[in-house]
Records
---
Amino acid sequence: MKILLIEDEPELRDSILKYLKEENYRVETAEDFQMAFQKAGSYDYDCVLVDVSLPGGSGLEIIKSLKENKSTAGIIVISAKNSLPDKIAGLELGADDYLSKPFHLAELNARIRALIRRKNFSGESKISVNEIMVLPDERRVFVNTQEVMLTAKEFDLLLYFIANKNRVVSKNAIAEHLSGEFADHLDNHDFIYSHIKNLRKKLMEQRCKDYISTVYGIGYHFKI
Ligand code: CA
């Protein structure tokens, strides 16, 4: 899961960043309006955390632009204490949720998880696809009720495939999802191939059907 954190207060930004990384999210940060606008317009995120008052502009403009560009990212507004107008404006522009400063990091995490579930899996805390069962909050996967131990990347890959099931996903989209903003600078996607190979092997060891097929020259297809 890839998150864009837009926050200009260095201490708050660093503490959120550190916490979310420990929770296995891939996080990119932006510390002012310009940087936030550029990143939000150039890359796909699962979730964008937007502080409203930023040097150089308003976080509300970022929300507006995400919505105009038909972004599917979940948006959480981080507003200053007691700033009801910011909250309302953010929600009216299409943000999904908001948090007022100060907040507990665990609460932020719970909001992000709930949001991603709502977006990708209609709010399910347990995702079942035939013989595969995923507990996204616990990052655990079962095949035919046997637990399969996946690496963080393999887990993200599986969840990405499930969220995009019956759709062809390009190698570029997978690379960007797994590694963040530098994917477009990689001219070699061998690392995706090896993660997919390992994921398939682990699933099939538990007698899971092979749902992942290669679409030559394009990417992969998780077909149910
Ligand atoms: Ca601020």
---
Amino acid sequence: MEKLGLRRATDLALHLPLRYEDETRITRLSDAHDGDTVQIEGVVTHSEVVLGARRQLRVTLDDGTDSCVLRFLHFFPSHQKTLSVGARVRVRGELRGGFWGREMVHPSFRPAGGALPAALTPVYPTVAALPQLYLRKAVLSGLNRADLSETIPAQFLSKNLPQPFCSLREALQFLHHPAPDVALSELEDRSHPAWQRLKAEELLAQQLSQLQARRVRDAMRAPALSGPAMRGTQCTLQEQLLERLPFRLTAAQQRVGAEIAVDLQKKIPMHRLLQGDVGAGKTVVAALAAARCIDAGWQCALMAPTEILAEQHFRKLISWLEPLGITTAWLTGSQKTRQRREMLALIESGAAGLVIGTHAVIQDKVRFNNLALAIIDEQHRFGVAQRLALRSKMTDDGQEPHLLMMTATPIPRTLAMSYYADLDVSTIDELPPGRTPIVTRVVNEARRDEVIARIRGQIEEGRQIYWVCPLIEESESIDLVNATQTHEALSAALPGVLVGLLHSRMPVAEKKAVMGLFTEGLMGVLVSTTVIEVGVDVPNASLMVIEHAERFGLSQLHQLRGRVGRGAAASACVLLYSTGDAPRLSQTARARLKAMVETNDGFEIARRDLEIRGPGEFLGARQSGAPMLRFADLQTDAELLAWARAVAPVMLDQYPDLAERHVLRWLGGKAEYLKA
Ligand code: ADP
Ligand code: MG
């Protein structure tokens, strides 16, 4: 129950059935069709244990209109007893036409007789070792005990709605135990009035909690990072940095830079998501924010999800910022103790203006002198707890650091606006000039040799190639075999070319060595198992081959493709696919590959991804800070969302106690996490 999050009576009451079973009637066998799931009642006329390839119990049941066979592959002596010849039993299962005539495999059964229930029987989502019967009783008891009194003031319950809502108690009672004559389609597509009420409640709770979080944040203080701490004749660090850059900022970079600058000058903590397609140039925007922070006399921390990414930032930012006299500290898990101690001292004394690293940045031992800005790259890869930990590194009581989160997997704007009342979003919607668009091709695995020939051509032109092998999450060892074989095959096919292999289980030092060779242009081809380590910036790489592309998610594919096309040379992405034993790819796999061929635009990709997967999953996978909506769907329930958005601020102002109760009911202990 703990695993399912079922702690309070309310949680149980809100644990809704996955589906229902109709045990309200008994069907006559002669009226039932193959494929129907039915409940029948009859007499056992035959029972035997059949030995064969698999030992099984076979029982023949006759209900007076026809007979059928019940088959059990797992059974206990007690089963045999209940199902002995002459016994009258009530059986429920799916009727199938089998070799022995009509049969049911592993039906549920019990002695016949007893009253039929008046409502459909709920089947709840559960976990191993939590039996359905037990859960049913627990939910029923929870439903009776829970405080389901009205939290939404009556004036809102019929506001701008096609039909007024029923009460929450009525809705829940109905959804747990619907009358047998309900249109099942209304339950399935959640259009039934009871569902409407429930989804409206959930959306309202989500909007209220985001608004609350926003108000809490607005009440918090952060250092206002306005101007240089020591004013002299010099221009600001930002201006110096801009001066030194080998390129001019794009208009989009300037715009988001200004948005961030405005936030940083305020006394309330910034909470901003910086989204921009891969290669859009988020790093320099982060560097400018860091420069402003350091200029004002405060420390800035930048956290990246992997050591390679962190190191890449480190190198780049060092090359930009150290010439300006900024000391940068570097923290990772694999560091030697002595170096680490030196770094910790730099951070604690405040000598280091900028601290870059992996999760190591948020460890207890790390004490900042005066942290004012925390930047998180690829923020969706960090959990909520880690973000909270970073924010708690602010040493001054009652103050919070400003928070800048960067992501290359954009959320469609409307979705972001409606979902994250608490988050400001800045978008870099333009790529730096001079990039040639990447050409994407979908190629059948059978034509692998042609791809290798193309690699040879690219190498001759002095280019470099990434080859990414699939990610099978359940089995990293299979990945490894794939990648190792590909590595060997490519090495053999490309004599004289250095082909490297990178996978997640290599020691960090080895990973770095391989990455180093590739970055410096000494390695022609890099075979990699994992998408994690390829968040790198090697402008000379011009071809990305993705093996078993059909197994990757759309945003992953797009991220990977973004590793090429960073220089001026024409770049390409080859999506190798295999249908395996199937005659063709699944529909969603085809839709993903098609989207990749048709567009290079990260926002369009995100839109298609949303279309293919639906917003629940879309947000759930990315934004661990916000709770996934369990019942409502932002797209199909746009009307309810509009209602919730209109009601939430008014309710929070006029009925704060009810609002509090409403949020608590829905989010329980989770509300704390929403603030992250
Ligand atoms: P991402 O947004 O994916 O993190 P990066 O910040 O790594 O992208 O930038 C990608 C590349 O583009 C880097 O090599 C960076 O130096 C370069 N770059 C960034 N901004 C510009 C610009 N305005 N003009 C030209 N190149 C730029
Ligand atoms: Mg980046």
